[in-house]
Amino acid sequence: MPRLEGHCWSCSCSSRMKAKDLSSASWVSSKAEEMMSIITSVMRHAYGSLHSIRSANLIRRGLVLFTIGVFLALVLNLLQIQRNVTLFPEEVIATLFSSAWWIPPSCGTAAAVVGLLYPCLDSHLGEPHKFKREWASVMRCIAVFVGINHASAKLDFANNVQLSLTLAALSLGLWWTFDRSRSGFGLGLTTALLATLITQLLVYNGVYQYTSPDFLYVRSWLPCIFFSGGVTVGNIGRQLAMGAPEKPHND
Question: Cα(170)–Cα(178) distance, rounded to whole angstroms?
């Protein structure tokens, strides 16, 4: 009998201990689920806020780049017209592209696209661009780019090949001085090729023309201008993106 009572007591005690352990485990599990739900909601809210901040920052940077592109297009196109490098038809409203009104918004859009692509490409390639990242360097880069455009309109060489080689050397010097990145060189070269192709199509369709063309329908130094312009706008876009929240990249 004592043995039986002891057995019953031990069974009841063990069952109470198991029940207590199960209740403790369920309480811990419920608290863990509650904490996980809180952490998930906080992370979701933080991600939504970060996404909205990134979107607003992207739009703001795009508008700044568009404005800079429009301003540079107005100044540089006026210089080319005054030096009779580019000629537009006299009709103003004869066709959709008979006037030069479309040049500023087109250049502004291109500047926004290129300027936003540069920091994205840097992040994608894992190549953080930290070479002379300051506004003073960016302003010097813009000054050199304007000087290259001024040289293309005002310098007189024996032939266009010498002028093209000179501007090509200046453009590469601009990239080496203010960029020196693989992504900058590749995207600048891509910009030059695409912009030159589009210009060839526009001149071929009679939208406007170049005096003394020597590279199909345009001047042979035109890709150098587009290359240096792409590098310049890319540096502006990188500088604008410095204060923006970016995705982490692998070194």
Answer: 12
